[in-house]
Amino acid sequence: MPMFLRRLAGLFLLGLAHAVFLFPGDILTTYAVVGLALLVLRGITPKAALMLAVALTAVLALAFVAAAGGRRAGSAGARRHVGRPGTGSRRGHPAARRARHDRQ
């Protein structure tokens, strides 16, 4: 087990360095944290594991809803169309309106 912990620590440090210097969306640190959590939880019963999985999924879903601010697809600010949706028209674009006004 100490070897596994050293590997997780190395993975975490490698991921941290990669996230700082190359790409902030790095997954290696997440793998190290999940590996540590799995090491801690390896002795739980299947029923407890299932209950924990359901609870964590529910918490994650609620966190995503809270992060979205409860916006719906049709609410103001959720989506902005330029022109008529689906037509490729840019008639509603401010530059197009100015050009039409200048031509008149």
Mean pLDDT, rounded to whole units?
80
**Order of helix and strand elements from N to C terminus:** HHHH
- What distance lies between the first and last C-alpha atoms, to the nearest angstrom? 79 Å
Radius of gyration computed on alpha carbons: 25 Å
Supply the number of helical segments: 4
Low-confidence stretches: none
Describe the structure in brief:
The protein is an all-alpha fold and 104 residues long.
Key traits:
4 helices, single chain, 104 residues, mainly alpha
Describe how the helices and strands are arranged:
Layout: H1 2-21, H2 28-40, H3 46-68, H4 94-103
Could you walk me through the main structural features you see in this protein, from its secondary elements to its overall organization?
By secondary structure, the protein is an all-alpha fold. It has a domain at 1-67. Helix content is 63%, strand content 0%. It contains four helices and no strands. The chain has helices at residues 2-21, 28-40, 46-68, 94-103. Helix 1 (2-21) packs antiparallel against helix 2. It is elongated, with a radius of gyration of 25 Å. The model has no long low-confidence stretch (mean pLDDT 80).
